[in-house]
Design brief:
Chain lengths: 55, 264
């Protein structure tokens, strides 16, 4: 299931509240400013700073 | 020990049922104390899976039986319906359910706002969110679930018309209550509303009030036992904050609005 586009628009980085970009594989959301990748597990975006992967 | 007690009681001429009753009365508090100890230990110490770091309480461990538990406490379908009555959701509204748990309320909210609206549920417990998603999929409800914490909501400013917080505020210690409510205020549009259902023993029957009194030692529950929940909403900037109803002996409903600056 692709992540809902309309919803992606209102999703922001929980740390800096900046915009997020969906990865090409669709398996994560990237905050360029914080250099963090929030994983999408079982179609559920994990919007937790401590679970984010540092880029 | 209980067997021995029962025998002594019977020797004194009590019926076996009296003995059973006494045994139950003795066992119940023991189970409650044991349960309380389990609950008060940090949930992350239970051998489950990593629970995100939040100083609010995550009910990850309770996911398998949470819905039955709520129903057993008198917080079943009628309670959810009453919550939604206070929320007065309109078709097309964007609604966020913070601490959505298994998504019981989120599903009803999604129904109320219809296909033109949007329903989002967020919770810090992976097991709860997984369940919420499965339940919604089974019912064909169109809801987006996110794993996240109230003190750092991953949504843009002013992106919701309504935020629901059902039985969740009492899982937050005072400073996280403040932080979380500020975040809720941020994601609500001006004129939007926060609908809260939560424990408020100060308005309960004197017996319940007395029983709830010791809960003041717990930082998470102090405001709920002392009747000082409303000031948290006011402090976060909500105005007006209305106490709109009660449910049974212990729950109050509040509707707190983010002031609409444009209307002055």
């Amino acid at each position: 299931m692709a992540i809902d586009r309309a919803l992606l628009d209102i999703l922001v980085c929980p740390k800096c509240k900046g915009d997020l970009r969906l990865t090409d594989q669709g398996d994560g959301l990237v905050c360029a400013a914080c250099r963090l990748r929030y994983p999408i597990k079982d179609d559920i975006p994990v919007m937790l700073i401590d679970e984010a992967v540092r880029l | 020990m209980l067997g021995g007690a029962a025998e002594i009681l019977m020797l004194w001429g009590f019926s076996v049922w009296t003995a059973v009753l006494v045994a139950v009365l003795l066992v119940c508090p023991a189970i409650m104390v044991w349960g309380a100890i389990q609950v008060l230990r940090r949930p992350t110490e239970l051998p489950l899976e990593p629970v995100p770091e939040t100083r609010g309480m995550s009910l990850n461990w309770a996911a398998p039986f949470y819905d039955r538990w709520c129903r057993g406490c008198g917080l079943g379908d009628a309670f959810r319906a009453e919550t939604l009555r206070h929320a007065a959701l309109q078709l097309g509204e964007r609604v966020l359910d913070v601490g959505c748990g298994t998504g019981v309320l989120t599903r009803r909210a999604a129904e109320a706002v219809g296909p033109t609206g949007r329903a989002v549920g967020i919770d810090p417990a992976p097991k709860m969110i997984a369940r919420a998603r499965a339940n919604a999929a089974r019912e064909g409800a169109r809801i987006a679930f996110r794993l996240g914490v109230i003190e750092r909501l991953p949504f843009e400013d002013r992106s919701f018309d309504v935020v629901l917080a059902s039985l969740m505020i009492h899982h937050l210690p005072p400073d996280v209550k403040r932080e979380g409510l500020r975040e809720v205020y941020r994601v609500l549009r001006p004129g939007g509303r926060l609908v809260v259902a939560d424990f408020d023993w100060s308005r309960a029957h004197p017996v319940w009030r007395m029983l709830a009194w010791p809960l003041r030692i717990l930082p998470m529950l102090r405001a709920h036992a002392a009747g000082r929940v409303t000031p948290y909403f006011v402090e976060a900037g909500f105005r007006p904050v209305d106490l709109v109803g009660r449910w049974r002996w212990s729950v109050s409903f509040w509707v707190a609005r983010r002031p609409d600056e444009s209307r002055g």
